[in-house]
Amino acid sequence: MQQDSDALNGMTPQDFVGSALFDRTFDEGMALVEETARYLDGRGRDEARALPRKASMLYAGESMRVTTRLMQAASWLLVQRAVRDGDMDADQAAGERYRLGSKEICLGACAESTDMLPVALRELLGRSDSLYRRIARLDDVLFNEGVIAALGARDHQSRLAQAFGSD
After folding, report:
1. Neighbouring C-beta atoms of residue 112, cutoff 10 Å
2. Is 58 in contact with 117 (CB distance < 8 Å)?
3. Can you give the residue ranges of every domain in the chain?
4. Which pLDDT tens digits describe the chain residue by residue (167 residues)?
5. Could you tell me how far CA 88 lies from the centroid of its own chain?
6. Which of 101, 29, 40 is nearest to 68 (CA)?
7. Burial of 114 (0-12, 13-18, 19+ CB in 10 A)
């Protein structure tokens, strides 16, 4: 993820959509959407039926979370592709309406352990989380003029030190 952000240094949104990074991210995102749809409509449906009631309710909630993540990611990627293809103006794509959404749902943690869920769903949850977070970072870097939200303990410590006037 940091490597992707480093690759964006000095890159405009228009440069990004013409890059190999965009192509890789787009292909990965769309492939994950297709894989998840196949799973949820096939084997996942069968696995969900076999779960006990509590696990079945958790499955329903988490399958909605993975779907929301992937729909948001796919929407963002398709907007960027429209910019690349000249079907949409880059300034329009930078508007709030086309930014990555549903962060409170997509980045939220599950209130319960997902250990009782089928392994395939847990893997899709992890991969969709990773993709969504990467796109959120790209969205932030590209459309917030390169200002990246501080992540990690060191950044938090630095901000606290600045706030309280210590080095």
Report:
1. 14
2. yes
3. 2-163
4. 556 656 677 788 999 999 999 999 999 999 999 999 999 999 999 999 999 999 999 999 999 999 999 999 999 999 999 999 999 999 999 999 999 999 999 999 888 899 999 999 999 999 999 999 999 999 999 988 544 444 445 454 555 555 565 54
5. 22
6. 101
7. middle
What tokens appear for 30 in the block? 């769309």
User: Residue 5's pLDDT is what?
Assistant: 57
Kindly compute the dihedral angle of the four CA atoms of residues 29, 32, 34, 35, in this order, to the nearest 10 degrees: 170
* Structural tokens at position 35: 């894989």
CA angle 77, 125, 106 (to 5 degrees): 60
CA 9 from centroid of its chain's CA atoms:
20
Supply the pLDDT for residue 157: 55
DSSP H or E segment with residue 136: helix 119-143
- DSSP class per residue in 13-51: HHHHHTSHHHHHHHHHHHHHHHHHHHHHHTHHHHHHHTS
- CATH, range 2-163: 1.10.8.930
Q: Name 70's Cβ contacts closer than 8 Å, sequence gap at least 6.
A: 29, 32, 33, 36, 128, 131, 132
Radius of gyration of the CA atoms of the chain, in A: 18
